[in-house]
Specification:
alpha/beta; 5-stranded parallel beta sheet; 4-stranded antiparallel beta sheet; 22% strand; Arc Repressor Mutant, subunit A; 8 helices; elongated; Rossmann fold
Length: 232
């Protein structure tokens, strides 16, 4: 797998290169947004790791330009207090984010997740979704928990369908509202919170400790497919 790292901090580039090459990734480094775009066009990477705060062409513009022609997953790196930056990057097409400082082990796990999702996205759409005790039959619009039918409203079903089509990906409030309700509802986070709560009550065994629908604080939600990540 070819990975392009775009970051203006030399120590970050060196550390990431060492960690990724130990895991047998082929790594290319770029010290600026301009260089990153050139190298992306030249090498066609399988995944891009992108710092947001760079002089010149910043990470947001790099993300926007990359997404206009490349399907490669993008993991953005952001500062601790930058929730607004994370939301903006995700809305521009980034697939996931990591807050600095972070461990290489966590980065590698995020990389594996987005690469798996990218490979699944290139395959024909499945007629059903199955994870643990939850099953969705898309042809029949049928949702079952432990083989017992769960009755969802049309919007609840559309919301669940979109989230399960993007498993393990952070979906911002705006992305979910725009996709399910339309652009005129892009800021209506109250409506989204109500529907998420209703969905949790219907598909989670313990809604207060959800295993599927996880909250990304002040950003959005992530549909997890690994039950060990149940929220405390």
């Amino acid at each position: 797998m070819k990975v392009l790292i775009i970051d203006d901090e030399p120590q970050i580039r060196r550390a990431l290169r060492a960690g990724l090459e130990r895991s047998e990734y082929e790594v290319t480094l770029a010290a600026s947004g301009e260089e990153g775009l050139d190298l992306a066009a030249l090498h066609n990477p399988d995944l891009v790791i992108l710092d947001l705060a760079m002089p010149g062409i910043d990470g947001f513009e790099v993300c926007r330009q990359l997404r206009s022609w490349s399907k490669a997953p993008i993991i953005v790196l952001s500062v601790r207090e930058g929730e607004a930056d994370k939301i903006r990057a995700l809305d521009l097409g980034a697939d996931d984010y990591l807050t600095k400082p972070f461990g290489v082990g966590e980065l590698l796990a995020r990389m594996r997740a987005v690469l798996r999702r990218a490979m699944v996205a290139d395959e024909p759409a499945e007629p059903s979704f199955l994870c643990d005790y939850l099953r969705i039959d898309f042809a029949r619009r049928l949702v079952t928990i432990d083989d017992v039918e769960v009755h969802l409203t049309p919007k609840e079903y559309d919301l669940l369908k979109y989230m399960t089509a993007n498993v393990n990906r952070v979906l911002t409030h705006r992305m979910l509202l725009t996709k399910v309700w339309g652009v005129e509802y892009a800021e209506d986070t109250h409506t989204l919170r109500v529907h998420i709560a209703n969905l949790r009550n219907k598909i989670e065994r313990i809604p207060e400790r959800p295993c599927f629908i996880h909250t990304e604080t002040r950003v959005g939600y992530r549909f997890r497919t690994d039950s060990q990540h149940c929220e405390a």
